[in-house]
Design goal:
single chain, 128 residues, alpha+beta, 32% strand, binds zinc ion, Uncharacterised_MJ1658
């Protein structure tokens, strides 16, 4: 994958989130990751977005992330926003292909208190 695709993805996320919310949202970093457990995916660090914004605009955000995944030819199982524990600030948007162990952890409706699931499973795969 060419790095300019990631650069485009970063710009798009920042611009789109600013357009959706009308707030100054900053995306300091985007990355492709691989975890020790076997999970892999795409992560955008976010500043200036609140959990409430992610809830209100979850369809827009999911659509935006799906477009990016298509561009970087990546398929995932779940898209979620993660907040800084104990606050209402979103610190990251993650699109993740889950390993078998994490599939179980993420099978519930609210896997963790710091995670807001935006899209998952069949509904996600179908539209990629
Ligand atoms: Zn995993």
């Amino acid at each position: 994958m060419k790095l300019n695709l990631l650069s485009d993805a970063r710009n798009k996320i920042e611009n789109d989130l600013q357009n959706f919310t009308g707030k100054f949202v900053y995306v300091p970093e985007v990355k492709i990751f691989k975890m020790a457990c076997g999970c892999s995916g795409f992560l955008a660090d976010i500043r200036g977005l609140e959990v409430e914004d992610a809830e209100v605009f979850h369809k827009h955000i999911t659509k935006m992330i799906k477009k990016i995944l298509k561009n970087i030819t990546m398929k995932v199982d779940i898209v979620y926003a993660r907040n800084f524990p104990g606050t209402s600030m979103v610190v990251g948007l993650t699109a993740r292909k889950l390993c078998n162990r994490c599939k179980k952890e993420f099978s519930g409706k609210s896997p963790r208190p710091d995670i807001l699931v935006l899209s998952r499973g069949k509904q996600l795969v179908k539209s990629i």
